[in-house]
Structures are given as C-alpha cells and as structure tokens.
Amino acid sequence: MRECVSIEKISHYEGQKVTLGGWLYNKRSSGKIVFLQIRDGSGFIQGVVVKKEVAPDVFQLCKDLTQESSLYATGVVQKDDRSKLGYELLVSHVELETQAEEGYPISLKEHGTDFLMDYRHLWMRTPKQNAILRIRDEINLAIRNHFHENGFVLVEPPVITPTSCEGTTELFEIDYFGEQAYLSQTGQLYAEAAAMAFGKVYSFGPTFRAEKSKTRKHLNEFWMVEPEMAFVDFDGNLEVQENLITHIVKTVLKNRKHELSVLERDTTFLQKVEPPFPRITYTDAVTMLQKADFEFEWGDDFGAPHETYIADQYEKPVFITHFPANMKPFYMEPCPEDPNVILGADLIAPEGYGELIGGSQRIHDLDLLLQKMKEEDLPQEAYQWYIELRKYGSVPHSGFGMGLERTVAWICGVEHIRQTIPFARTLNRIYP
Ligand code: 4AD
Ligand code: MG
C-alpha cells in the first residue's frame, strides 16, 4: 500500500508533500477550483484542487467524485487559520480507489435520529458521531490506565451466568444446553470473588438488561466498569469514585479538545470537576424535594425530574447516600446506626444526565448475608460459591458500577445515550 499520513498528525508535515488515504465527505466546485472535504477516520481536511495546477483528467475526476468515494490525495500541507483543523492540502494529484454509488443515504441535510440509527454503519462516519466515539475511546483508555496505575487487576467475569444479581425481572434468558441461563446484568458478584484473590480488581465489559424502557438513558446492552476492593469501606469507595470521574474528565479535556469543540460542548461544568464531590443522604434529598413542592415520600424512587432537581443544586456530580435498604439489592451493607438504610450511594451527574454510578459497601458477615438472601427468596444452592467468600476469610469490601455510555453522554453533552455506543441495542432496535 501507499505510505499515507494521517490527518490527525498533519501539523507535523507543514510545507511538505504528503499523500492521504481517505473518503470524500463533501465537495464544492467553481469553474477553476474544486474544494474536497476529505476524511480519513482520524480527522477531516479540506483539499484544494486548482485547475491549472493538476492534470486535466485529475481535475475532471475531482469534479465527478461522488460522496464517500475512496481516494488517495497527494499535495502540500499548508497552514489555514480559517479551518478548525488549522491546515489544508494544496492538491497536486488524486487517485480514485472506488467511486461510491450515487445516492449515499446520508446527505448533508438534516435527518431524523431514527433514520440515522437505521444507517448507523454509515452515520458513524460523520464528524459529530465520530467525535463521540473517539471520546468514548479516550474514556475507555483513561479508565484502564487509571486502574492499572492504582494497582487494580482487570478480571473479566463471564457474560453467561446461571443466576441474577440486580433483580430477576430484567434478565435476558438463554438456553444453555437445556439449562436456563442469563446474559449478565453485572459482573459484581464475580468481581467480589476476584477482590478476595487480588485485593483490588475491576471488570469492564458488556452487561445486559431486558428492561422495556425507552428513556434517553437506557440501553439493553451497555458497558459497565466495576471495581471491587477488599478492606475498603463506604467512605473509601466514594473517594475511589470521585477520583476516577475526575481523572476521566481531565483526560478528555486535555486530549480531546478538538472533538469537544466539534460537539460544541460547553465545558463550564466539566472544568469544575474536582474531588471532593458533594454528598447528600437520601433522607435529606427527600426533604429537599418536598421543600421544592415535589410530591415525594420517603421510600419513593427518584425519577428523572427528581434527579435533575437535586443535581441542579450543585455544580459537580453529587452522591446521594444511605438509600432505604428495601429499594436496593440484597448485597448492600446496612448502616450500623440505622439498618433501614444502606451504606451505598448513587452518583448523579450535573446537567440532567442522571445516575452515572451505583455502588455500596458489601455485606461481609455470613449470617447477615444468609438472612438477606432468605428475605429476598434467593436460592442458596445457586449462590453457594458467593456465600463461601464469607466463609473463608471474609473482609469488609466495597465496589461500584459506572455506566460507560452515560458517562460518555454527559461528557460529550449528547442528548441520547444511543449515540454513545457504536451499535445500540434498544427496545425497538437490533439493526444494524
Ligand atoms: O446501579 P446499577 O444497576 O448497579 C449494578 O449493577 C451494580 N451491581 C454495580 C456494582 O456495584 N458493581 O448499574 C450501575 C450503572 C448505573 O449507575 C448506570 O450508569 C449504568 O450502570 N446503567 C445503565 N446504563 C445504560 N443503560 C441501562 N439500562 C443501565 N442500567 C444501569
Ligand atoms: Mg443503580
């Protein structure tokens, strides 16, 4: 193949003659000049083709190029302060790889999101979608680096599981050689086992929820990062969370300025992300809502308007702590001062993006765990291995789950979470 340079690195080649391999995103022409908007996956650049500077057949080729045709463009890299990139290509030669068929479905006019989701395989080529998925990649890497540098071991839990963890109504069932099995809702229970083997671990993978919700915050397949830590209590758990979120935000602000500007993201709130994050108990949050004339009783679950109202009282993500025990799963450690509430917290993002993280200290006492499982009617045989973790060297431990797509949505400032994953799975969508 030809030696091609990438648009992302184009500043290194100012004044030099280079070749790019890419696709035609858009084109404008007058009689004597053609402007080619070329993308190569790493960025977008304008190529300027002047009639008298190139061979006649090359000029004709450029005039006839269809949207998304693939090509090699050779030319000199020149500074151009009017473009976002800061450079353009003074084209001396263009070679066609493949002329795209006429009628590319995504024209440059506005389309509805449902239409675009049908063409997700092509939509991801456009600047904003490209920027979102690049920021997702940056966040992925920031998470892995952060945990690696802080002594956490990545341990992958299975995706096919025999039991549930977060409640039985939201499970995708599968037939496992005649036995009933499920797609995993969370890797947590396995991460707890691994924490007793490695001390500090995290899992990072796809998780599945068969919930029939159509909100802008729910996917049926999403990625979750789930740290789990031995000898860490409720407070230590919150510190790990605020440090993780801060690291992610700072990394994106530093390394993905261009993408944030493509998304026209106002970064005022992101700039303020710094530990410690404010904390409010569930009970105080209820009082806050009641004072603001919401109809809300102690024991009710927060809906989107409640979460947004609470988040709007702060400039940073906020922890809501000490939820009623019966609202949360069986494994959460009760608060010693008041066993009706748990040593857990949800982290709510600013700007209406809702819950980014759910986490807690875990029950490590054998008898208490058995009692809770009984109350929730969980079959002990199936959880035998999980119970054994409390029999053999149990220690206080804590962990949490952070939804990757919600984090990407918040940082990118995109309305709907379906744009933050390459190919979304939602109630009404399993194509493409
Ligand atoms: O609060 P959740 O359900 O917590 C757990 O599954 C725990 N077992 C995690 C743990 O402690 N290891 O989910 C955690 C996070 C949520 O805060 C949210 O960000 C994301 O996962 N999440 C979803 N994201 C997209 N679509 C959905 N349907 C989601 N459900 C949860
Ligand atoms: Mg939750």
The average pLDDT is 96
Beta-sheet strand percentage?
25-35%
* Class of secondary structure makeup: alpha+beta
Number of strands: 16
Fourth CATH level, the homologous superfamily of the largest domain: Bira Bifunctional Protein, Domain 2
- Which class of the largest domain in CATH terms? Alpha Beta
Global morphology: elongated
Task: Summarize the helix and strand pattern as letters.
Answer: EEEHEEHHHEEEEHEEHHHEHHEEEHHEH
Q: Alpha-carbon distance between the termini?
A: 30 Å
Characterize the largest beta sheet: strand count, sense, and whether it forms a barrel: 8 strands, mixed
Description:
It is a single chain. With 432 residues, the protein is α+β, with helices and mostly antiparallel strands. The model has no long low-confidence stretch (mean pLDDT 96). The protein has helices at residues 56-64, 113-118, 120-123, 127-149, 188-198, 234-255, 257-262, 268-271, 282-291, 304-312, 366-375, 384-391, 404-412; strands at residues 17-29, 33-39, 44-50, 70-79, 87-98, 153-154, 160-161, 173-176, 179-183, 200-208, 221-230, 279-281, 318-321, 344-349, 354-362, 397-403. It has an eight-stranded mixed β-sheet with strand order 6-10-11-16-15-14-13-12. The chain has a five-stranded mixed barrel with strand order 1-2-3-5-4. It folds into two domains: 7-98, OB fold (Dihydrolipoamide Acetyltransferase, E2P) (Beta Barrel), CATH 2.40.50.140; 121-420, Bira Bifunctional Protein, Domain 2 (BirA Bifunctional Protein, domain 2, 2-Layer Sandwich), CATH 3.30.930.10. The protein is built from 13 helices and 16 strands. The longest helix is centred in the first third of the chain and has 23 residues, at 127-149. Helix 4 packs across helix 6. The chain starts with 16 loop residues before the first strand and ends in a 20-residue tail after the last helix. The structure holds 4-amino-1,4-dioxobutan-2-aminium adenosine-5'-monophosphate and magnesium ion.
